[in-house]
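Subject: Sanity check before I submit

Could someone independently write out the structure tokens for this chain? I want to compare against mine line by line before I put it in a report. The sequence has 222 residues.
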Amino acid sequence: MMEDASQALAVGAYLQAAMACREALMVAHADRDFGTMSRICLPMLEAQRALRLAALDTNIIHCVSKSTDIPPDPDASCYLFAPNFVGADTLRFRSAANDAGIGAFVLTREPTTAKGFWPIVGVADRVVRIRIEPPKDDRPTANWFAHAAEALGDQAIVDAKNASQPDDPKDWIVDDFLDRLDACPEHEKFIKALADACQDAINAPTSPRKRRRGIIDDPYSF
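---
Independent answer below. Compare away.
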């Protein structure tokens, strides 16, 4: 799988490379092979960076609040899903686009708060949320979109780190990051933090205790 990813990177097939890296990452995780997981993170980061920059370079932000707002032939640009869509809808759209060979860059915003902020949400096994200033005239630009995505990924790192207790085994922390990977797959610092967690878990002692975390957030809630 990583040979496929390397070849895809070499010819600029970044989505193919990213998907191959993701598949390889999950296989290595199933084997608890944290050294391999750490090595996979760098080419995955490179592929996701290229996809993110390509989408932002289009300078096209599709604002999707109803199904008819989705272009009949989606392209590899940026998509901001708004109410009445929720984060789980966005996750399904990105998965379908990726399966179709389209490297869409997607975010979800929830209803405006009483203080005028836009909640931005990313859905994975765990949900990540932030609240940020809306763009001028509620019209997102590529710069605003990039800022929102960066803030979401920064929060995902904080959430992953805060999920653990000081005496938790290192492999649990890797799982805390993987729980949030789909919430911000393009975020470079998040992937680097995942790689660091994998490095820390190499040869670290494990625990017979069952990994427990708090109640999973409801991805369909506002």
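---
OP: Matches mine. For the report I'm noting this point. Confidence is low (pLDDT under 50) at residues 215-222.
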